[in-house]
Amino acid sequence: MEVIVIFLGAENEGNIGSLARVMKNFGLYKLILASPKAKIGVEAFKSAMHAQDVLKSARVLESFDKAIEDVDFVIGTTARLGWNYNVLRTPIFPDQLSILREREGKIAIVFGRESSGLTNEELNKCDVVLTIPANPEYPTLNITHAAAIIFYELFKILGKPMTERFRCATKVEKDKILEVFGKLLEEIEYPSEKLQIAFRVFRNIVGRAFISGREAHTLIGVLRRTVTLIKRLKQRKQNK
């Protein structure tokens, strides 16, 4: 498993260094700054302490899309929940990351801007949304505090022996699942005004399932066969 950390729209140089420090505390070394407003300078290196090597190897990319283009599984973080009526912000929690223990692939943990976090559009590009339960009167954690909690859970997973490993479904495979599911919705003439929400719900399910490559191929096969059978039934009905 390869874990990268993406800091999107970083606004404070000190936070960049502090994030690098927390990363190294828990054995993470790959940092990407996407569309940062702050640069890696003296303050960042000072805050990083003994994690200056993480800063020196950090990549700076122009956009979020560029940062996740070769990532197999993207985990966005947020303090704002949507619950039942906003499926885009239906979350998982840090302790649920344990399912990663037997998976392989490239995984990204994404942190948003200090002032506003990740937008709905950016969260929509994530496979799953993660939140940390906190006092509802003041649920927003400092980025490095949130990172420490999440990285600790990952460290427990990565630090344990893996007796049996499964290849995690790649981004290409998951995109294919969603593509075929979209065709299925068309064939069953699902109400157009509900298409977007149904598609997002299914994507949430696929994301939280952390499916393997084998599971992805089986699901694609089942969905394709379903689409084919529906088309045949429609054709027979037309020919009668």
Write the layout of secondary structure elements.
Layout: E1 2-8, H1 13-25, E2 31-34, H2 42-48, H3 52-56, E3 59-61, H4 64-68, E4 73-77, E5 91-92, E6 103-104, E7 106-111, H5 120-123, E8 128-130, H6 143-158, E9 166-167, H7 171-187, H8 195-209, H9 213-239
Parallel strand pairs: 1-2, 1-7, 2-3, 4-7, 4-8, 5-8, 6-9
Describe the structure.
By secondary structure, this protein is of the alpha/beta class. It folds into two domains: 2-166, 3-Layer(aba) Sandwich (Alpha/beta knot), CATH 3.40.1280; 169-239. Helix content is 45%, strand content 14%. It contains nine helices and nine strands. It has a seven-stranded parallel sheet. It has a two-stranded parallel sheet with strand order 6-9. Helix 1 (13-25) links the parallel strand 1 (2-8) and strand 2 (31-34). Helix 7 (171-187) runs antiparallel to helix 8 (195-209) and helix 7 runs parallel beside helix 9. The N and C termini lie far apart (54 Å). The model has no long low-confidence stretch (mean pLDDT 88).
Mean pLDDT: 88
Helix content: 40-55%
The parts where pLDDT drops under 50 for at least 5 residues are none
Fraction in beta strands: 5-15%
Q: Spell out the CATH superfamily of the largest domain.
A: SPOUT methyltransferase, trefoil knot domain
The number of helical runs is 9
The biggest sheet, with number of strands, parallel, antiparallel or mixed sense and barrel status, is:
7 strands, parallel
Tally the structural domains: 2
Alpha-carbon distance between the two ends: 54 Å
| CATH architecture call of the largest domain | 3-Layer(aba) Sandwich
Oligomer: single chain
Order of helices and strands: EHEHHEHEEEEHEHEHHH
Shape: elongated
How many β-strands, per DSSP? 9
